[in-house]
Amino acid sequence: MKAQRAALNERIINSLIKLAGYSSIVFVGLILIFLVREGLPALNDVSLKDLFGSRWYPIEGYFGILPLISGSLLVTVGAILIAIPLGIGTAVFLSEFSPSWLRNLLKPIIEVLAGLPSVVLGFLGIQIVAPFFRRFLDLPTGLTAFTGAVLLALISLPTIVSIAEDALNTVPPAYRQGALALGATNWQTAWGVTVPAARSGLLTALMLGIGRSIGETMAVMMVTGNAPVLPSGLNALFLPARTMTATIASEMGEVATGSPHYHVLFFIGIILFLISLVVNLTASSLSLRSRKRAERLLS
Amino acid sequence: MNLPEYSRKMRQVEVLGINLLRLITLLTAVPVIGIIVFILIRGLPAISWEFLTQMPRDGMRAGGILPAIIGTVYLTLGTAIFSVPLGVAAGIYLAEYASDNATTRLIRIAIINLAGIPSVVYGLFGLGLFVLFLRLGTSILAASLTLSIMTLPVIISTTEEALRSVPNAFRVVSTSLGGTRWQTTWRITLPQAMPGVITGIILGLERAAGETAPILFTGAAFFLPRLPASPMDATMALPYHIFVISTSVPGMPLQIQYGTVLVLLVFVLGMNLLATLIRNRARARRQW
Questions:
Q1: Range of A178's domain?
Q2: A186: which chain B residues are within 8 Å (Cβ-Cβ)?
Q3: Residue B84 lies in a domain
Q4: In chain A, whose CA is at the least distance from the CA of B118?
Q5: How many domains in chain A?
Q6: Predicted ipTM?
């Protein structure tokens, strides 16, 4: 009798655990369903041509999201251009050249950066970074795409450094020993052997850095100046801009539920969801491939 | 080729290169320390007993930030209530129950995607599902549920990792003594993995505590004259409060702004420190 009850309990608990295990799939599905449910009606309210038009001025019924997409691209590309040399350089230094006491000191410090809330970085952007760039570059306002890019670089750095460093660490020591035995210097070994061997891991790091940048909301909204205009040239980097994320965050609070504006904001959410889907799937398939290759080489 | 000449050049390149990398690393690490020191210096003068325990006055330009502090505590606890049992159970499933098949791979892909979805998209989802469809309104409950789902991937992955690091011998012995899978997990594996699990929970909640975008349309309030009385009330919260006072309140004293940032920073980094301490202590004590 008692054993029967125990077996029943066990069965219930096991199914609950299985259910919890499947919950992630359910949530991704729910997120997609609710974004589509609220966002797809945008296509009824606004024609496809107007939706991908170049003017975002919701009060007068202009819902062209091109300026927002290009704003996101501008800021993200700027951020990645800053973050690649800093992130990969730091990772190579920490894993290949740094004495271990320094690595043990610096890694946690850089990881603290990952824990800083983005609103705190946005606040410092307003107080310090934007005024600095306004004076230093002699601009009419410091709240520009460039300021946003600098902050985004800072935000995506911990992701890039920590994943890139892991990738470099998993390169088998035999590779380095082989290069050194052939007379290569430490420097030549690092850039000629270790970095190329870790390249898919480094690409993963970059992809995830890009993912963080595109999805970042608060810091970007606070420092980019909130001007939804289509960039016209390279100097657009030093003008105010507006990203997709910032548009949702700053306008959703004021729209009427069910209005065209409301649907279009959810539609932008669908685009963001799809971008993050592509970025993350690419990143995970890259890291999977590198793991398989390492296994094959070492077996 | 003159060999010494060549190798001297190589040596120069190497020294130059390594110094350049040192500089780059410095450029990455210095802002972090700078940010924390700077906020400490500018924020500390604002901190007083009144600042931490009083309601805001004069359109938030004076008085304390008690409702924002309380709100963030409520939201963090609310998030924990939903995300901890679900996340730990899902981690247990992946580490102890799941076999390596297509469904498991799909679960992993789902987790990776949940981790990558932009925070403001979680806000949209929370608005669509919890606030409107389930009619919870903008409330602590809706915001906590939204934050919970965002926190899940962190808790699931760290729980799984912590369980996997427990040596298999523990499971083998328990099973050979007649323990079922659940008994083995609950009595043997999970206790062994507990420090790692707790570290993951704290790191997940730390992120939830600092987030603004997911609560913007699901539970955060610009200003409330009273503390929230039930989970169905909206609430003020530290991150949103920082956004509000630094962008939407003209004539806001800088000292209050820096003080509020410092309080959030202590809250968040305090959790981070706690997680690190638990991890290090467990590592030092571990017998396997």
A1: 43-298
A2: 14
A3: yes
A4: A215
A5: 2
A6: 0.91
